[in-house]
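Dig into my protein:

:::
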Amino acid sequence: MAVNGKKRRLGFWGERRAARFLKKSGYKILCRNFRCKQGEIDIIAKKGDVIAFTEVKTRTSDCFGEPNEAVDFSRRRRYINAAGQYLYINGIRPDEFVLRFDIVEIKKGEINHIENAFEW
């Protein structure tokens, strides 16, 4: 149980850090921790005509590989479906914006923003 609490705190810390990083990079945070039956999106941010659906992966070591490697096919599928739900709920037409799936990796305190990490 302590491990789950520790992982959860690490995840929240990483998401806060990623949100601050995105704001400093000129993004407006539209939503954090969007949840629906299709899944969860950590951060939804807008910059210009781009809406970035952003998965945050935080690691303290290399034991489990690179953080972005945890975003496998099934997780991508859930992310895509959740993004579609967010657009629908908020009345956003997909042709109004450039829609992108990003990953923000935080490993050993360093941030790596992978834009357009995977496609619709």
About this structure: The two ends are 36 Å apart (CA to CA). Residues 2-118 form a domain with the Trna Endonuclease; Chain: A, domain 1 fold (CATH 3.40.1350.10). The chain has one domain: 2-118.
